[in-house]
Design a protein that fits this description.
This protein is an alpha/beta fold. It has 11 helices and 11 strands. The chain is globular.
Length: about 300
């Protein structure tokens, strides 16, 4: 059996590598990047892990791209991942959206749920607190001497706007019993109030309605004190380089897919139901001007 010299072997190997490089098979620049999506972790992780991987698959089908859901641990992490380009499309709250846009000039709000154009927060309380429902923001003064928890520190519906309405009603947080808590999510706020860990909580109305429907938490000892006036909240935010990285028209394809979700279609209905919505509608950055102004007043936006 003939032998192959080491020199001949190396030359042959070099030639194969050169051919491979010429074909683009091992050239990283020839590989289409993966579109990363993420979302603020505002609810039970089990729900989020059912929703977003399924949505990633649907977006992949609509764009002919490889799409991956990248879960994060907190609201701040979503903004940071969007800023550095680890994710390209993010489901943001109103506040996290304006924070991300401040860090990524040119980022665009492309779609929101039908319910996000007129969103509401609720103030809830344990019946043991003795607090009674009231009709306007001035009733928030009755929270004096009670404990209260917000959701995440950068939650629009669980902190920013509830705090705004407290100020509008003339209530000073210093009149609470101790400093406000931060539960981290709306589900956690509901559980904290239901268990009596806090007497009062500020919570997203949509999550409250879902908790009532699911019946997984005993809410028999919880009362809704007040429903805030409406404001604009959640939305999908796209990076300004989405078309440059993934091809011209990618932003439009994603937007059209979201707005085109049809509750009459079985597969679309599953996605919409998990979002707690009947449809997605177009939106734009200027719709969040109030959120931006309030965030600046509260020192949550530079």
């Amino acid at each position: 059996m003939p032998t192959i010299s080491r020199r001949t072997f190396l030359l042959g190997t070099t030639g194969l590598l050169a051919l491979s490089a010429c074909s683009g098979e091992s050239d990283p620049a020839s590989v289409t990047p993966r579109l990363g999506i993420s979302a603020i972790p505002d609810q039970d992780p089990e729900l989020l892990n059912r929703l977003y991987p399924a949505l990633a698959d649907r977006i992949a089908g609509a764009t002919d791209l490889e799409v991956a859901y990248k879960p994060v641990t907190d609201y701040t992490a979503v903004v940071r991942a969007f800023e550095v380009g680890d994710i390209h499309l993010a489901w943001m709250g109103g506040l996290t959206g304006v924070q991300a846009r401040a860090r990524v000039p040119g980022a665009t709000a492309i779609a929101q749920r039908d319910i996000d154009a007129d969103f509401h927060s609720l103030f809830i309380a344990t019946k043991a607190s003795g607090l009674q429902p009231f009709d306007d923001a001035s009733g928030l003064k009755t929270l004096a001497g009670h404990t209260l928890t917000f959701g995440s520190e950068t939650s629009t519906s669980g902190r920013l706007m509830p705090q705004y309405f407290m100020e509008q009603g003339g209530f000073d947080q210093a009149d609470l019993q101790g400093s406000p808590g931060f539960s981290g999510s709306h589900d956690a706020t509901i559980e904290a109030v239901a268990s009596g860990s806090f007497e009062v909580g500020a919570v997203n109305e949509q999550v409250w309605d879902a908790a009532n429907e699911a019946g997984e938490v005993d809410l028999g000892n919880v009362v809704v004190l007040w429903r805030t006036p409406g404001y604009v909240d959640y939305h999908w935010l796209a990076r300004p380089d989405l078309d440059k990285v993934f091809g011209e028209g990618t932003t439009a394809k994603v937007t059209d897919f979201l707005i085109g979700l049809d509750p009459a279609d079985k597969d679309d209905a599953k996605i919409l139901d998990l979002f707690g919505a009947k449809s997605f509608i177009p939106t734009e950055n200027s719709n969040y001007d109030l959120i931006e102004a309030v965030a600046k007043e509260q020192g949550l936006l530079a």
